[in-house]
Amino acid sequence: MTRLFRKRLSFRLTRDTVLLAMALGLVLNMVQVTLDYFNARESMEKEVRALIEISHSPASQIAYNIDVRLAEELLDGLLRHPATIDARIVDNDGHTMAAASKSSPSSPYRWISDALFGANRTFSDELRVRQLEDLPLGTLNVTIDTYHYGLLFLKRASYTLVSGFFKSLILSGALLGIFYFILTRPMMNVINALSRVQAESPEKVRLPVPVNHQDDEIGAMVGVINQHLSTIDTTLAQLRQAESAMKNYSTQLEQEVDDRTREISQKNSALQRGNRALVKAKEDAVRRARSRANFLASMSHEIRTPLNGVLGMLGLALEGNLDQEQRARLEIAFTAGQSLLGLLNDILDISKVEAGKLSLENIPFSIKNLIQECATLHAQQANTKNIELITDIDPELPDMFLGDPTRTRQVINNLLSNAIKFTEEGTVRIHAARFGGNLRIDVVDTGIGMSKEGLHRIFSPFSQADTDTTRLYGGTGLGLTLCRQLVEQMHGQILVDSEVGQGTHFTVTLPLPVYAQSIQQPEESTPITDTNTSTDSLSILLVEDNQVNQLVASSLLKKLGHSVDLAENGKLALKALEEKNYDLVLMDCQMPIMDGYEATRKIRENPKWQTLPVIAVTANVMQGDREDCLASGMNDYITKPYNRADLKAAIERWAPDSPVGPEPT
Predict the structure, then answer these.
(1) What does the alpha-carbon distance between residue 277 and residue 282 come to, in Å, rounded to a whole number?
(2) 370 neighbors 401 (Cβ within 8 angstroms)
(3) Omega prior to 664 cis, within 30 of 0
(4) CA nearest to 585, candidates 518, 51, 68, 596
(5) For 89, what's the count of Cα atoms within 13 Å in the CB-facing half-sphere?
(6) 41: helix, coil or strand?
(7) pTM reported for the whole predicted model
(8) Which residues of 85-122 are buried (b: 16+ CB within 10 A; e: fewer)?
(9) CA distance linking residue 39 with residue 34, whole number of Å
(10) Cα 143 to the center of its chain, rounded Å
(11) Strand order in the sheet with 84-90
(12) Please, which residues have CB within 8 angstroms of residue 132's CB and are 6 or more apart in sequence?
């Protein structure tokens, strides 16, 4: 509970304000204590001098008359002062006429006083009588213990420091309450209201605007969210209306079929007419099915528009300065939005297939690289569940095939995602080989498995193997439906074998021809050049901490004909530049250990890297980001996600005229 409280914005604001106030108060208190210290030393000096001046005349008369009894009384009187520990009258020959002394007090704090004022001090006064000014009579020596004055000073200093500390505590409590009621509580009310939004019916909820926040940033944020919820409300209402219309169409169709069947059974003479009616009804059904698919495709696009707005706002919010709790909540909302977007994409693809509008590419692609990309994409999901994700590719499998890499990747991603989702422990294995002249991909898991009844409906839309599966793991059942349709579109086959508790085995067979490459093939990462590239092959250092972005960017750069080395942060980038000469650096701005801004500044501090082109790569699109990049010494600026055309144009702008320089020996 304490840890959660410390993450709140009100606590952090209070902490920073109070720390500043305490630092300033400490400085002021130290100044006051220092002044008091010098005043205490001056006061001690004056007080002892005054004591000696009072005793000067009696002591001079005693020394002149050599009256030992009066001398002892005078010295005993001096010892009554709490600081005096020794008093004596010494004649001109150095002999002690009379002396009195007492022991110094002891205390555990005495060492502090001794360090500040010294353990003791001795004051001397030459004794003379008014009638004989030129006749020295001896000296009055008084030794004082400074602890009396040091203790008074320490008490005053302690009071000053302790009172300042308690004043800071009172200020801390007051500021904590103010910040909580003005900022934290309204934000928490908005977040709690947002967390109550149901994914099935987000349109039923509107977030309340906190009191006295109608015109500030919190009120603006609530207004934008409510606006998007209203848009979703309108869109879902239209979708439900369309679904109701489709149900009416289906009912009418069934009624027409029943009427035609009844007419055939009642009137043999109307058999031919009834057959024509059935044919017409079938054609109407096909047209209506295609109309439904077209409508779903259109509605999916309409829903994606406001959903992308919501995701965009959440993405911008995640790029701001947030504490861990706020970031976690926004990431949950962002992940839910991405899941909904993936669902809409699946619906759109299924609608395209049913409407006959899905076009497939027939281009060369590397199935090995594609499988590795998919495995890398799902590695984090598998690691989170402590599942071992194994990639098993037949060494004799040809590297290049002709087909649609996008749809093949979609099938593999869906199968891997399902396998990891329904596996609690064990392994998920993807195996690729060539079997019977076809490409064969097997995805095998050690998950919960399926019953025989579940196997019959696993590829049906909006259904899963068992009702318990839907309840425990969620999902819409569209992924495998889309896989089946895509595989069939590519003239392939998808099979499944499973038992309850024994895992599941999916087999995808695709009749993809092997791509016949040219005889003069490049040697083994020589980069594959782009025929449209006008720039010579460059040696590029890619500084990027995200593995998926590393894979995407390095693939694009290699297709553009350049060689690429990777560095995961700015510190490693500086080390790589010391070890090798590069023509250009692609620098991510936000990285751990050392970010791109600091790394670029250090690059510019080195004379031999003054002219090295550094291109910033960032996901930020806020005003001022470009100026920050240029101010740190970067030459250019491109935004994520990586775009091939933008990347190529930036490289061509800053590519050096000369070829890649030799590596240092």
Answers:
(1) 9
(2) no
(3) no
(4) 596
(5) 31
(6) helix
(7) 0.45
(8) bbbbbbeeeeeebbebeeebeeeeebebbeebbeeebe
(9) 9
(10) 68
(11) 96-101, 84-90, 139-145, 120-126
(12) 64
Q: Which residues contact 147 (CB under 8 A, 6 or more apart)?
A: 104, 105, 107, 110, 113, 114, 117
Phi, psi angle pair for 29, to nearest 5°: -65, -40
Write down the pLDDT at residue 531.
38
Q: In the structure, what pLDDT confidence band is assigned to residue 528 with cuts at 50, 70 and 90?
A: very low
β partners of residue 543:
567, 587
> Residue 336 class from Cβ within 10 Å (0-12 exposed, 13-18 middle, 19+ buried)?
middle
Pair 571, 596: CB distance under 8 Å: no
- How far is Cα of residue 15 from the mean position of the Cα atoms in its chain? 22
More confident residue, 21 or 576: 576
φ, ψ of residue 585 to 5 degrees: the values are -125, 125
**What is the reported pLDDT for 533?**
42
337-349 burial code (b ≥16 CB/10 A, e <16) = beebbebbebbbb
**Secondary structure in 3-state letters for 196-215:** CCCCCCHHHCCCCCCCCCCC
1-36 pLDDT, tens per residue? 556 555 555 566 666 776 777 777 778 878 888 888
Tokens 């901490």 — which residue?
Answer: 545
Token pair recorded at residue 207: 């977030």
State the sign of the Cα–Cα–Cα–Cα dihedral 418, 420, 425, 427.
positive
Rounded Cα–Cα distance for residues 252 and 284 (Å): 11
pLDDT tens digits, one per residue of 596-611: 999 999 999 999 999 9
Amino acid at position 551, single letter:
L
Cα separation of 291 and 25, whole Å?
Answer: 76
Mean pLDDT of the chain: 77
Instruction: Copy the structure tokens of residue 215.
Output: 């015109």
Q: Give tens-digit pLDDT for 97-150.
A: 888 888 887 878 788 877 888 888 888 888 877 767 677 788 888 888 888 888
Structure tokens at 585: 């650096």
Strand blocks (E) in 404-492: 427-435, 438-445
CB-CB contact of 507 with 495 (8 Å): yes
Instruction: Please report where in the chains the tokens 């077209």 appear, as a residue.
Output: 294
> Could you tell me if 490 and 407 are in contact, meaning their C-beta atoms sit under 8 angstroms apart?
yes
pLDDT tens digits, one per residue of 146-172? 888 888 888 888 888 888 778 777 877
- What is d(CA 35, CA 39) in angstroms, rounded to the nearest whole number? 6
Question: Which residues on neighbouring strands pair with residue 87, listed in sequence order?
Answer: 100, 142
Count of beta carbons in the 10 Å neighbourhood of residue 237: 11
